[in-house]
Amino acid sequence: MKLSAKVKKTLNSTARILIVAVACWFIYRQVFVQGDFAQFRQQLVFSFHSDSFRLLLFAVLLMMPLNWLLETVKWRSLIRYLEPVTIPSAFRSVLAGITFSLFTPSRVGEFLGRVFTLKANRIKSALLTIAGSISQLIVTLVAGMVALLFFIPQYVLFYERWQDYLFAGLVIFVLLLSSLLVLLFLKSPVITARLDKLIRPQWRRMNLYLIVIERIGRRTLTGVLLLSALRYLVFSGQFYLLLRAFGLEIPYFQAMMLISLTYFVMAAIPTVALADLGIRGSVSIFFIGIYFGGNTAAAASILSASTLIWIINLALPALLGVLFIRRISIINKP
Q1: Which DSSP symbol is given to 48?
Q2: What is the pTM of this model?
């Protein structure tokens, strides 16, 4: 059944209102209802009296737009193969996508929200957007696996000689797997082109969408991977600064190793939105808390840092994204 322009406009407006309402409800629930908000607020107020805390918090807040600007540039460099988008327009779409992502499993709504702001073919747009997400996932996995190689000798005791050989095998495996992941990403246009030749005739229509991957240049993919690595350094650096802001004395290398393991495990867990903040806090306490020997006060500070970085990097951009949610059109306009 073909819908009239008026009905489409009404449905899109209704969908936008629902997205805004659910996103605001979700942020409220995550921050004020779930977890121990009273303890978080008490620790935040207590720490705010410190000049160093305010300085570090200001630095983390400044890094938030840089984090999402890097994501914007990365997404724009891919989506330009379908539709020319300016940096400001792409940035608004990214913010709208964050709002849309809050209440979806594993935040898949983030790329869907961006796709719904474009006029280009949505399936092709989704494929390019997913390619950007895969690049970030590869960086997270590689960083986590490398961190594991430094973590094991420090925190896992070896009693038998065969365990040394097992660790050597793990090193080789990590190096090979990391190289393979990067190579597959950079070779994805070639792989897609060859895959097209193997597709059965009745599935040939898939090529109409896959061809957009074949068009991506090697230089673009390399740039996307580098932007993902730079963005990873930014948001992991934010986490480190917040740990220091809450009074946790931990060397930078140690912190980055444990933070990388935290993000590695988080990437492997298919979280449901309502449990996202709680799982983040638990995983952070498990890994970063190892350095502090299970100290209760340290665990509280780690949880506060994990909560605050979620508020800064997700909740605040999502609230800003509410201003641009009108860009999202769930139902195509005529």
Answers
A1: T
A2: 0.86
